[in-house]
Specification:
The chain is mainly α. It has ten helices and no strands. Helix 3 packs antiparallel against helix 10 and helix 4 packs parallel to helix 7.
Amino acid sequence: MGDPGLGMIAGLENPLVFLGAGILLNLYPGPDTLYIIGRSLAQGRGAGVCAALGISSGALIHTLLGAFGLSALLAASASAFTIIKYLGAVYLIYQGLRLIFDRSAPARPGSNGKGTSGLLRIYRQGVLTNVLNPKVAIFFLAFLPQFISVSSPNKVLSFILLGLIFITTGTIWCIIVALFSSAIAARLHDSGSNTSRLKQINGLLFMLLGLKLAASKVDL
């Protein structure tokens, strides 16, 4: 039986079950979590929070695409899925190589991504990292509709509402991860050499995520 209250109003099935399942899924470490940890360790709290907000913005785009059926086209086309997957993989590997071979002076611990322009760049990278992962689109299409009532008066709005709930809990968790990781990083930024090593580790993490995405398979 569905939960009363919000479920009846918004056309949702078992919204409390969805909330609990969504929180558990967000707690499970995935590529987005690793990306946020990498940014936080290498560039501090501001960079980690911007990365988290970028990931959440990408998830919002997936929610809107799924609600209006555009992600269904991706799910139905193996070639489209493959193209997006490899674009995402190339992007991640490229960003990783940039970090590994960057010879600019290391940022100071309090710089948090080298100013506003640096934070905006990290935010954009977070958005693209999420948007260019077709597995996220498939996940939203597979997971969210299970909690939409067949009698929902507006299934598009129900889908968007579920997406917003999932994104809200995910954003809270991602920001916690960013703050915790940056607190650890603050102890490691005592010297420029440590900062450079963290940046190279972050670059290697990007490359590994790109290779993992390129090797991933989803049955369509």
